[in-house]
Amino acid sequence: MGRTFGLMGVDWEQRVDFERLRVARLDRIKRLLRASELGSLVCFDPNNIRYITSTLIGTWSNDKFVRWSLLMQDREPIMWDFGSAARHHQMYCPWLDTRSRAGITNFRGGIRPEAGRAEDVAHKIKVELEQAGLVNDPVGLDIVEPPIMFALQKEGLKVIDGQQLMLQARMIKSEDELILLDTACMMVDAAYEELYKVMGPGMKENECVGLVAKTLYDLGSEHVEGVNAISGERTHPHPHIYSDRVMRPGDPVFFDILHAYNGYRTCYYRTFAIGSASKALVDAYARCRYYLDDAISRVKPGATTAEVAEAFPRAQEFGFPNEEAAFALQLGHGVGLSIWEKPVISRLIAPEHADVIEESMVFALETYWPASDGYQAARIEEQLIVTKTGAEVITRFPAEQLLVAGQRYQTVEGALPTMRERQSNLNRADGLLKERVKPNGTDRSRTRSPEPAGRRQARRRRSSR
To answer: So what's the pLDDT on residue 203?
Structure first.
């Protein structure tokens, strides 16, 4: 079950135990490696490296693939890292002991192939495998640049896919991982609160992104991976990237906030209306919520991801030719050290390839529905922990009904309704400017609001003169 605490370490309360976290993660992948056909795992994916070695050198390195780790059967991991980072690990990561070493790949192709960096990486790995007597066993790789894979094969190593084993390890979360994931969601709760306070006509999508990033970093976020901020006509179809569009009265706007707290991510959509919402948007939101709640209700240990996916509408029901074209609009996906992990829940995946849901999995469920007017849409997402009996939602910013932000308009008769059309002429109240047609259909007149008494008396005086 999820829990959150303060964001500091203290001596008077048991919070996240990072030593327990490191040991639990490494023990889990060791057990799975022992039971597999692999003799070793070589990882270049920074999330897998962190899971195995509990090292980090900054999010700037996430797409560089300049560092790697080696985990061999019944042995402790070895880490080759970027320049002085290896020495820093020697000083401040005692769990690595003497196994933190300097190493560099081909700098994502920046170093000329003739310099032999790929061959050097392969040779370093082969030396360790020979010493451990594992050189003839399959080597699992997660992600790798082709020159390095070719160099490993040239060394005579049998290279196969190791990413599936790593994702299997990361699928079930420990007690400390659950706390970190819940805390990451708590921080996004706060970001949505800040957005809700200030959103209104005239605010730009990119301003919202800046506010979210500042709120999260102020709270201690390690990395704001991305913020989708999509408003107005941009909500359908979903472009998956924010712009400098200025919000207007009656606009829908939805956000997806992705960030990491001590490595653990969020994927967390919310939809708002600016000032007011049309009936078409309200209906789309209700449809979104219905599918999402149906999916959540199906989550429990022993159920399959295919059973949950059945709650989602088919692609053709909301304007797409097939499930591939609509992928990610009705979706479930694991969340942990990255925002897309196992399990994946989608109608695109055939039922025979479904995963069985287990306790302590953490995943997000997200739905989308276009409004009947053809240019608006709603999007909602909840992140949840699988419990013994069902699911606990850990994304707590209110989303049961569509929220209206920036609503502060008062008329002479009271507050302006928050459900109204964007065009004022479409918001005729009963008895005001309402057309009335006589039964014969020939004489058209309008009923108007009652004439003020003072004006009526003045008109009568003028007509009597």
So the answer is: 98
The position carrying tokens 């909301």 is: 318
pLDDT of residue 205: 98
> What's the CA gap between 242 and 231, in Å, rounded?
9
pLDDT the model gives residue 459: 53
Residues 161 and 88 in one domain: yes
Q: Going by C-beta distance under 8 Å and a sequence separation of 6 or more, which residues neighbour residue 197?
A: none
Q: Is residue 420 part of a domain?
A: no
Three-state SS at 391: strand
**How many Å apart are CA 100 and CA 56, to the nearest integer?**
12
For 345, the 3-state DSSP assignment is strand
Residue that the structure tokens 């020159």 belong to: 147
Query: DSSP string covering 98-125, please?
Result: T-EEE----GGGTS-GGG-HHHHHHHHH
The CATH number covering residue 66 comes to: 3.40.350.10
Would you list the DSSP string of 187-204?
HHHHHHHHHHHH--TT-B
Under 8 Å between Cβ of 171 and 52: no
Do 160 and 211 lie in a common domain? no
Same structural domain, 148 and 180: no
What's the domain range around 208? 175-405
Number of domains comprising the chain: 2
Helix (H) or strand (E) holding 445: strand 444-447
The domain boundary, picked from 171, 190, 221, lies at 171
Does a structural domain hold residue 462? no
Classify strands 362-370 and 377-386 as parallel, antiparallel or unpaired: antiparallel
Query: Does the residue 23 lie in any domain?
Result: yes
Q: Which residues pair with 444 in a beta bridge?
A: 437
- d(C-alpha 166, C-alpha 168), whole Å: 5
Q: Quickly count helices (H) and strands (E) in the chain.
A: 11, 20
What is the rounded CA–CA span in Å between residue 93 and residue 43?
A: 19
Task: List CB contacts of 170: < 8 A, sequence separation 6 or more.
Answer: 47, 51, 334, 336, 337, 341, 342
Indicate the residue among 405, 435, 450 that finishes a domain.
405
| Stated pTM of the model | 0.90
CA distance linking residue 101 with residue 444, whole number of Å: 88
Q: What is the mean pLDDT of each run of 10 residues along the chain (465 residues)?
A: 87 95 98 98 98 95 93 98 95 96 94 96 98 98 96 98 98 98 98 97 98 98 97 97 97 98 98 96 98 98 98 97 97 97 97 98 98 96 97 97 89 86 76 42 42 52 54
Closest among 326, 371, 330 to 236, alpha carbons compared? 371
Rounded to whole angstroms, what are the CA distances from 327 to 174, 323, 372, 398? 30, 6, 21, 26
Residues 136 and 181 grouped into a single domain: no
Q: Hey, what are 368's tokens? A: 């989308």
In order of 270, 324, 344, the CA distances from 308 in angstroms are 21, 18, 10
